[in-house]
């Protein structure tokens, strides 16, 4: 077992993909490791540092180091994170990140860490190998999403794409029959062949990063994704370190729920409010946006919905259906800005969490008391949804038609199902959710994974 003295001498560089859903879990892991005595250099663009530095719980041990993104044709000036642009523009953000390679190498040389932890910057392993430093590729997506889409056995070669029908079929040896795509959903994975940087695709970026690192780390646990993690280790012939979900509690003296939400949520009975959030990148078409908000109205429950303004609208207000605000006044809010998701989710008035099942939201919903309704949009989110809804049976996926449309009736029905104390399916989901929440919320469960991960890091550098 590594001694505390050894840990205090252990320096790590963290370099996440420039997206909230990646930066946040990297920072959670950094906070957790710093609490064990590790020192961390955390690389981010300057504006992103301003945004995330308040979540640094150990400023004496975690040092944010700035990099400057160069201008790139197609990337709006001043953009530093994926949440600032539509998904189709993140390709240009990736180019900008790749062009910081010299800056990143200078930081690594200057700080001389024992380990560099990264994800999308697949070239990091080239730098570390030349310097005799170990590299860890940290997956903050589910093991299921990576194991289904991004494994060598799929036989993908440059210049030859798989068809959408082929993408819908699990790769050979994939160890789950429930965490899968349906036949018409293969198109959700076609993005892996899209450009993601200069002269590279998303597939090439992910697979290279995993193939060239010294070890894989995954933000998950054996109890939920053990066989999938083993499969990834076998596919890439790498050691696999699991961190557990790594959700750190916000320090109460640093972050508290904003008064407007305390006051508004406080008007309602415990467990009665439906809270919805779809993450920092999802931008709906206006017609689907309007259909969804009508679904919340139709449910009859009070609701707080945090969504970005839909495509073609500059504000939420201009996108709302006619007469909507008047009809839901006093019981419903559609909010177009960032909200404190975890703090709202943990408010006693909230009883249902409607979300896109990004991996962070998946863990947060699993560890909350709220019932879970899932409306996934991207391929990895669909697989996360099948993990919760079909494998663990703790949440309910809203049914879509084959064109991907979610009707107001289907959304409303799903909410009513999980909120109705007498509904047989809802009761079964609540019972399963309670069981799994007990498992993953146990402090010993969390600490055992971190302790083992710490030991894995020490063993890696021996």
UniProtKB/TrEMBL annotation:
Belongs to the UDP-glycosyltransferase family. The gene is UGT79B20. Pfam families: UDPGT. InterPro entries: UDP-glycosyltransf_plant, UDP_glucos_trans. PANTHER family: GLYCOSYLTRANSFERASE, UDP-GLYCOSYLTRANSFERASE 79B7-RELATED. Keywords: Glycosyltransferase, Transferase. Gene3D superfamilies: Glycogen Phosphorylase B (3.40.50.2000). CDD domains: GT1_Gtf-like (cd03784). This is UDP-glycosyltransferase 1. The keyword Glycosyltransferase applies. It comes from Linum usitatissimum (Flax).
């Amino acid at each position: 077992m590594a001694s505390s003295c050894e840990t205090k001498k252990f320096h790590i560089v963290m370099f996440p993909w420039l997206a909230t859903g990646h930066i946040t879990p990297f920072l959670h892991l950094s906070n957790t490791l710093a609490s064990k005595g590790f020192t961390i250099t955390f690389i981010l663009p300057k504006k992103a540092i301003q945004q995330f530095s308040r979540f640094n719980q150990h400023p004496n041990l975690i040092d944010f180091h700035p990099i400057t993104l160069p201008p790139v044709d197609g990337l709006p000036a001043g953009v530093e994170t994926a949440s600032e642009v539509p998904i189709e523009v993140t390709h240009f953000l990736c180019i900008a990140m790749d062009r910081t390679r010299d800056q990143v190498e200078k930081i690594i040389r200057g700080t001389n860490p024992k380990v560099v932890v990264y994800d999308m910057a697949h070239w990091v392993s080239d730098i570390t190998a030349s310097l005799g430093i170990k590299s860890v590729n940290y997956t903050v997506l589910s093991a299921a999403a990576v194991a289904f889409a991004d494994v060598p056995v799929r036989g993908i070669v440059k210049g030859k794409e798989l068809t959408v029908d082929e993408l819908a079929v699990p790769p050979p040896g994939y160890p789950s029959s429930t965490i899968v795509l349906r036949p018409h959903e293969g198109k959700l994975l076609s993005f892996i062949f899209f450009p993601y940087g200069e002269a590279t695709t998303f597939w090439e970026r992910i697979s290279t990063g995993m193939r060239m690192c010294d070890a894989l780390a995954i933000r998950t646990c054996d109890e939920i994704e053990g066989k999938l993690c083993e499969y990834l280790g076998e596919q890439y012939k790498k050691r696999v370190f699991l961190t557990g979900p790594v959700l750190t509690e916000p320090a109460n003296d640093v972050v508290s729920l904003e008064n407007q939400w305390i006051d508004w949520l406080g008007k309602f009975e415990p467990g009665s409010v439906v809270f919805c959030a779809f993450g920092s990148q999802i931008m709906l078409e206006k017609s689907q946006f309007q259909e969804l908000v009508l679904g919340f109205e139709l449910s009859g429950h009070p609701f707080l919905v945090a969504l970005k303004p839909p495509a073609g609208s500059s504000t939420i207000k201009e996108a709302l259906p006619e007469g909507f605000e008047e009809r839901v006044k006093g019981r419903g809010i559609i909010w177009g800005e960032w909200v404190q998701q975890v703090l709202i989710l943990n408010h006693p008035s909230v009883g249902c969490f409607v979300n896109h099942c990004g991996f962070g939201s998946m863990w947060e919903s699993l560890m909350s008391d709220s019932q879970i309704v899932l409306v996934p949009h991207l391929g990895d989110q669909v697989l996360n949804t099948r993990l919760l809804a079909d494998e663990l049976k703790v949440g309910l996926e809203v049914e879509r038609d084959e064109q991907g449309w979610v009707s107001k009736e289907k959304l409303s029905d799903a909410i009513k199902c999980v909120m109705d104390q007498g509904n047989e399916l809802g009761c079964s989901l609540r019972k399963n959710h309670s069981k799994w929440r007990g498992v993953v919320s146990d402090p010993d469960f969390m600490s055992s994974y971190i302790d083992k991960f710490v030991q894995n890091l020490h063993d890696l550098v021996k």
